[in-house]
């Protein structure tokens, strides 16, 4: 069975984005969407917290929300759960801890939601309150360490940590080196550049990436830019001179675009400019309009099936339901999967009552979940000690003009036995 990686890169990169910005075959089972003639009953209320307005900018963290809403809209159109509609209550926390606590209070205490779904909060300050109230939080994005800290929280990527109120194991989280192993094995990469700002969050994330690369035997070229007056052209010229095969970065979205433009200007050609699931979107052509060579060297890695791979029936279902959206993204697909996850748990509780306790019990003792193949199997365990190595699998796609994101191999067989390296969240 395919195993998902600890998504250290996504977790750290999302936190980095916040800090930088602050500084500056068959369709989905009919059982999910079946109609029913059961008389109308009270709706099942769920909450979605997203940092829709935040220092990062509008739309940066709304993808999971939009995917979940699309799923629930389709579910309700086809009869809901046991004849009951799913009523979604939205709350924008504004990207702040105060706002997040306000959302948690409103949704849990006033709206009395059964569960939270597809949480995407820049500062999930309300997580302890959610846990203490024993409200299941299903399929949230692990932007911080909350999903590896608290019980009753079930992040979209799973967790093996004890989740006893302390992050990970004694304050340490662990991440694998599968991304670096992939490019080394599949593309013969040997030299990697890591570009960062001289800013604490950026530099810390760069050190994490460099450590993983060195563990996989890469020669690493570090490029640090002045945060106030970054010289992207000089960095691009240097990584060209060093013969970098890969480029990883600890930059914001604007910085990424500027770096790509500079790479094109100096003629720096690389095997891959590697990005993460947050940037796995349909807006690449616009975001990187000034750098066609670098744009066509963009690769994305993650733990979910390429949102553009409509050869897969589950992806086709997602794309059909979200066809009215102006853009598409991997986070939308993962939000859709989170809503599906809640639906499966709630449906199994229909006979005894769809309550917080029952849904949480189903989540806590359920089998690995893969959202009909949209996700690598998600697992929750409480290991006393962190694994030193782990077999992990990887979803990979490459951007190509005219085709968009093109899937590279089967995510269920692109797997590696890799070391798990500690880092402090």
From TrEMBL:
Domain Leucine-binding protein: 43-402
Annotated InterPro entries: Leu-bd (IPR028081), Peripla_BP_I (IPR028082)
Pfam families cross-referenced by the UniProt entry: Peripla_BP_6
Stretch forming the signal peptide: 1-25
Family per record: Belongs to the leucine-binding protein family.
Alphabetized PANTHER family for the sequence: BLR6548 PROTEIN
Identification of the protein by name: Leucine-binding protein domain-containing protein
